[in-house]
Amino acid sequence: MSCAICNGLDGEIIWNDNTLRVVLLDHPDYKGYCRVELIAHQKEMTDLDEALQFNIMRCVFKVETVLRKIFNPAKINLASLGNKTPHIHWHIIPRFKEDAHFPNSHWGEKLRDGLHQTISAQEKKELITLLNQSLS
Ligand SMILES: [Zn+2]
Q1: Which of 12, 41, 89, 114 is an S-S bond match for 100, by CB 3.0 to 4.6 Å?
Q2: Is the pTM for the entire model greater than 0.85?
Q3: pLDDT, tens digit, for every residue of 86-119?
């Protein structure tokens, strides 16, 4: 079976332990867009024991906290769909009123040209530093 997350598709792993990893996507419209991925191929959160469920959500909220601190977005979007890739992963997306889709989902109808802001080297360094501090 071919699974995009098991195959380690796009993005850069900026933190991981034995069970989870945080991937920074190099998204042209959404700087700071991260995914928290369970390393094991599991489909639903309710397939996991409570301790692992808790660890995943803890990681998601830590990433959210760090992204808010660095980017001060209008809103954070959290999403777990997995219809196309049924392997547990959470999207953490900083959103801005001027971004290409706001207030729609970033998968929804595009409303404007968007920000075209990629993450700077300084922002990326701060993101990695703060993530390591809060997740260690
Ligand atoms: Zn998988």
Answers
A1: 114
A2: yes
A3: 999 999 999 999 999 999 999 999 999 988 888 9
Q: b/e for 7-18, b at 16 or more Cβ within 10 A?
A: eeeebeebbeee
Alpha-carbon gap, residue 30 to 75, rounded angstroms: 12
Query: How far from 88 is each of 26, 61, 92, CA to CA, in Å?
Result: 20, 16, 13
Distance CA 61, CA 55 (A): 10
Residue list, CB under 5 A from ion ligand 1: 3, 5-6, 41, 87
Tokens 């990681």 locate to 59
- 41 CA from centroid of ligand 1 (Å): 4
The CATH number assigned to the domain with range 12-135 reads 3.30.428.10
Residue 6 Cα to ligand 1 middle (Å): 4
Q: How far is the CA of 5 from the centre of ligand 1 (A)?
A: 5
